[in-house]
Write a structure and sequence with these properties.
This protein is of the alpha/beta class. The chain contains 13 helices and 10 strands.
Length: about 325
């Protein structure tokens, strides 16, 4: 007897619908299925959990879900990201691997005289800018930035700052503040940590006078009343912290912006580089990513291609100059 398609059509249709649903779940809109060739995208956060790079990687994981399905985030902490960087460059030619990086890593490479630099990677995109906030414990007698400045001028060595890795944006900001108020940046008492969570623990334990970190990393503690913000490093007050004055408002002529981006390993093809850049640009246009920027207080700063490569080199020269003045490079 001849086979009758109509008799099994509904079951075939149901099966096809299931396959389509699975494909949609794994590959989103399907544009990257051929590019990744069925492999999972992996994101390295070259720092301990809880910091800005870790937050960025995990927000990317969520925003990329509709584009490439499930991705994996993993942490490699230490030395301002340079330990993770040294491992990352060994993944030569693997276009399924991405690493979050930024200004902190640029500074850490110079201050640590790291054997591996960013020119060993394939720069893909700058994603966002995040400003710094200076906080003190909630029970601290320091109430304003003016109080902190007075203490620094009186005895700089007794005022300690807790922040991220040595040579990173937090230490650079502390040095710039010292320079702006007329004390020696090289004498700043800075306590370095591999992640924002560790720096917060040091601050709350009383082993540091003030803490410096990205707004997104400390916003929850500020809202909970665990720490009190005294200044932000932005040119104007931030929507996320509208009641916190800028450094410039309080007579400290300093502003400093952090930024974070993404690189791929060396040795990927030009087509893979273009596909990854396109993927990241699409991610920045998703509703999920836009919501992330607003919730975290991050500012969109998308930049790709040769412009991003040139930007990294410009930042390297600028940061090196600052670190030399501070005696850190």
């Amino acid at each position: 007897m001849a086979w009758k398609p109509a008799a099994v059509g509904p079951y075939v249709a149901a099966a096809l619908a299931t396959v389509a649903l699975v494909a949609s779940t794994v590959w989103g809109n399907g544009e990257d299925a051929g590019f990744l060739n069925g492999r999972q995208l992996r994101l390295m956060a070259p720092a301990a959990p809880g910091g800005g790079w870790d937050q960025t990687a995990r927000e990317m994981q969520s925003a990329l879900r509709d584009e490439v399905g499930r991705t994996e985030v993993y942490n490699v902490a230490g030395a301002g990201g340079t330990i993770g960087l040294s491992q990352f460059v060994r993944l030569d030619g693997d276009a399924t691997q991405l690493m979050v990086m930024g200004l902190v890593m640029v500074g850490a490479i110079e201050s640590n005289d790291a054997p591996v630099a960013l020119d060993r990677t394939t720069p893909l995109a700058r994603l966002l800018t995040d400003y710094e906030v200076i906080v003190v414990p909630a029970d601290s007698p320091v109430r304003t930035m003016g109080d902190l400045v007075s203490r620094m001028r009186q005895d700089l060595g007794k005022v300690s700052f807790a922040g991220g890795s040595a040579g990173g944006i937090e230490q650079i900001l502390a040095g710039l503040i010292a320079d702006a108020i007329g004390v020696d940046p090289g004498e700043v008492n800075y306590v370095a940590h591999s992640g924002g969570g560790e720096a917060l623990s040091t601050l709350l334990s009383g082993r540091a006078t003030a803490g410096v970190s990205g707004v997104s990393e400390l916003e929850a503690q500020i809202e909970a009343g665990t720490v009190r913000p005294v200044a932000v490093s932005s040119p104007q007050r931030l929507p996320a912290l509208p009641d916190v004055p800028t450094l410039k408002e309080q007579g400290v002529n300093v502003e400093l912006a952090n930024w974070r981006g993404v690189v791929a390993p060396p040795g990927i093809s030009a087509d893979e580089e273009r596909d990854l850049e396109d993927l990241l640009v699409r991610m920045t246009r998703t509703e999920s990513w836009r919501e992330t920027l607003q919730r975290r207080g991050w500012i969109d700063a998308t930049l790709t291609g040769q412009q991003f490569e040139q930007y990294i080199e410009t930042e390297r020269r600028t940061v090196t100059d600052v670190l030399v003045k501070m005696g850190l490079a």
